[in-house]
Amino acid sequence: MLKTSLSCLMLALALSGCKPAPQQASHDSAVPAATTLSPATADAPWWQDAVFYQIWPRSFYDTNGDGHGDFNGMTAKLPYLQELGIDAIWLTPMFEAPSYHGYDFTEFYQVETDYGSMAEFETFIQAADDKGMKVILDLVINHISREHEWFRLSAEGVAPYRDYFVWRKDLPAKGEGWGYAWDQSDKPEAVWHFDARRGEYYYAAFGATQPDLNLQHPDVVAEMKKMAKFWLDKGVAGFRLDAVRFVMETGPEGQADLPETIDYWRDFNAYVKSVNPEAYLVGEAWVDIPVAAEYWGNGEGLDQGFDFEVGYKILGQLLPTTGNEAQFGTISGTQSGELHPLQENLQRRQQSAAPLAFFSPFLTNHDQERVAYQLAAEPKITQQKAKLAAAMLFSSPGTKYIYYGEEIGLTQADTGHDVYKRAPMLWSTQTQGGFTPATLSWVEQAELFTQQFENWWPAFLQQQLAQGGSTVAEQQAQPDSVWSLYQWLIAQKKQRPELKLAGSYQVTELANGILHIERELNGSKTRFVFNLSDSAQDISMLLNTEQTANWAFDLQGNMLAAYGLLILQTP
Ligand code: ACG
C-alpha cells in the first residue's frame, strides 16, 4: 500500500474513484497543493509551448556523399520532422569555423562549406517556412576563433582591433581569484593565454582557441548587432545564444552573471526586436534556476532560458544511484525535503524572478552525455527508461527541446570526448545507418581531429544495428517505440490544454516505486503513471472509468510492467 502520508492515500483513492479508507493518524506533511500555473494567454508568442528539435548539422543527414551532414540533408528530412510534430529547429553553429563543432567562428556571414552553400541554406530556411517550421541559429557572441582576422589584427596592435579583445601584460598570480568562469577554481592559466605577436595575455573563457570578445567596445557591440540582422533578414526566426553568462568580465570576481551582462542582453534584445518583433532569443545559462531567471531581465532581456535542472531531476528519478541532486556544480538544487524533486523543480521556476513561460525544459543537449547512455542497462530496459524520461519531460510545462536522436533513444559509444555525443543519426539499417552514402562518415575522418585517433565508429554502428530497433525506420514501424511515444506526446501537447503552460501540475509518489503526475485544466486531465521499479506493480487504485488509458502498452490487467508507463486522459 501507500508509504506516503494519509493525505496521499486520500488523494490516490480519490484518483481511483474509490471510497476513502477509514481515518488513520496522519503523520507526514500534507500533499502539496496542485500547482496552478499561469493562464494561457490568447496572444502567447509563437515559441510558447512549441517543441524545438536541436540539429547537429554535421551529423544529421548527408546528401552529397562527403560524410558530413548538409543543408540539403536537412531539407530532405523536413517531412520527417513534420511527421514527428516539430514546430521549430535549432541549428548548432553553421558559420565558417576551423573546428568540427563550429563554436569558434572565423566568419559571421559565410556558412560552413562542409554543410553546403548559402543558397542551399536559404533553400532550407524557405522549405522549413513552407512547412510552418521556424529555424533558430546558434549565435556565439561571447567569443570567436583565434584564427579570425580580428584577432590577428588585435595581436598586431592594429587599431581599432587592438581593443576588440581583453588583454593584460602579465599572467595573474594564483590566489587572485582568476579561474574557470563557471566555478571557483583558482586557475588563471585556464582563462589567460599568451600571444607572442603582442607579448601579452588575452582572456578566453573557453580555451586559447576561442578568445573572448571585448563586449564593452562599442564597435564590437555594433558588429554583433550587424551579424544578428544579417541572419534575421534571411528569415531566421531567432537565436540560441551561447554562453550568455560570460559576455562581460570585470575582474577575478566578475567573470559571470554580472549586472553589466544582463544589461548587454537587454540592449541586444531591444535591437533584435527592432529588426523583427517576433524574433526569439533563448539563452544558454548553465546555472541554478534563480540565476538563469535573471536573464529575463525584468521582461527586457531574453525571451527564454534553458532549465538545466529538470533534466538532471528526471534522470535522477531513473538512476537512483545518482540521487536527485543535479549532477553539475552550479545547480545547488538541494531538496527541501517536503516536495518531490520534480514538484520542487517547477516551484523553483515559479518562484524565480522570471515567469514560468521563460523556462525551456529539456533532458540533455550536445554538451551532456546522451539520455540513453546515462540510463544504459540491458537494451530493453534502456528503451523503457528512455520512454519514462520522455514522458516526465513532456509532463512538465514549458517550451520543450529535443536533442537529435533522443527521439529514438540514441546512445553513444563512449565518454571522454564530446564527439561521442554528436555522432551521426541512425536513420535505417543500411550502411552507415543511412546517414551517408560515403564510405567514411565524418567521425571516421582522422584529419578532423587533433588528438590521437582510433576509428571507434564501425564497431559502435555494428553493435547498434545488430541489437535491432535502434534506427528511425525500425522504430517508426513499432507502435510502442521511443519514437512513437515522442510523436504521441508531441501531438498531445498540441491537442490537450492541460499540457500547455496553464495546466496544473501535481506529482505524487506512491508506494512500490509508482510515480503519478497529473496535469489538469478546466476538467481536461492527463495522468502519467510511472513504474520506477524493476517489477510489475498493481495500480488498481489508480485506474478508473472516467479516463481512457491512451498509452497503455505496459498495462496487463491492473499490473503495470517494470519500468512501465501508463497515460490516462479524460475524453
Ligand atoms: C557552450 C556550448 C559548447 C561550446 C562552448 C564554448 C560553450 O554549448 O558546446 O563548447 O564555445 C560551460 C558553460 C557553457 C558551455 C560549456 C562548454 N557551453 O557554462 O556555456 O562550458 C559545468 C558547469 C557548466 C560548464 C561546464 C563546462 O556547470 O556551466 O559549462 O562545467 O564543462 C557534469 C558536472 C558539471 C559540468 C558538466 C559539464 O555535469 O557536474 O559541473 O558543468 O558535467 O562538464 C565548444 C565545443 C566543445 C569544446 C569547447 C571548447 O562544443 O566540445 O570543448 O567549445
From TrEMBL:
<dbReference type="InterPro" id="IPR006047">
    <property type="entry name" value="GH13_cat_dom"/>
</dbReference>
<comment type="similarity">
    <text>Belongs to the glycosyl hydrolase 13 family.</text>
</comment>
<keyword id="KW-0732">Signal</keyword>
<protein>
    <submittedName>
        <fullName>Alpha-amylase</fullName>
    </submittedName>
</protein>
<dbReference type="InterPro" id="IPR017853">
    <property type="entry name" value="GH"/>
</dbReference>
<dbReference type="Pfam" id="PF00128">
    <property type="entry name" value="Alpha-amylase"/>
</dbReference>
<dbReference type="InterPro" id="IPR045857">
    <property type="entry name" value="O16G_dom_2"/>
</dbReference>
<feature type="domain" description="Glycosyl hydrolase family 13 catalytic">
    <location>
        <begin position="54"/>
        <end position="436"/>
    </location>
</feature>
<feature type="signal peptide">
    <location>
        <begin position="1"/>
        <end position="21"/>
    </location>
</feature>
